[in-house]
Amino acid sequence: MRCAERGLVVASKRGCKGCGSVTRKVTAPGPRCATCHREARKASRRASHGRWILKTYGLTLEQYEALYEAQGGVCYICRRATGKTRRLAVDHCHVTGWVRGLLCKPCNSILAHARDDVDFFHRADRYLVDPPAFYTIGKVKPDGT
After folding, report:
1. What is the reported pLDDT for 11?
2. Which CATH superfamily is domain 34-131 in?
3. β-strand 26-27 against 99-103: which pairing, if any?
4. Confidence tier at 10 by pLDDT (50, 70, 90)
């Protein structure tokens, strides 16, 4: 007995919902070819991020992108993280709620650890420039010299 006689629907070769191509293989999880599926997933993540920053910080996706471009596409503090693998976090003042800029996770965590205390960073600066060990025990290296 054939499939149609048993009431089963035979899958016909459908085109991609995104580009309409019938030569590309349409694979799970949806009616799109792999390329269109990646693009749709990317657009969905972008829209989701836009909704999140609007709800949380009152910042539109366009404002986020403008801030990203104004910072040269890098974390404002370390200038190393680009936000390509993990988006830069929106840093804001916890007292006023004002958005200050975009930071990578480690830099944002440092600010959180310091609780936005400016003196913390002055002490850190003094520590790096003039370490207390130098005038207490002298300059000592691990190799003993």
Report:
1. 43
2. His-Me finger endonucleases (3.40.1800.10)
3. unpaired
4. very low
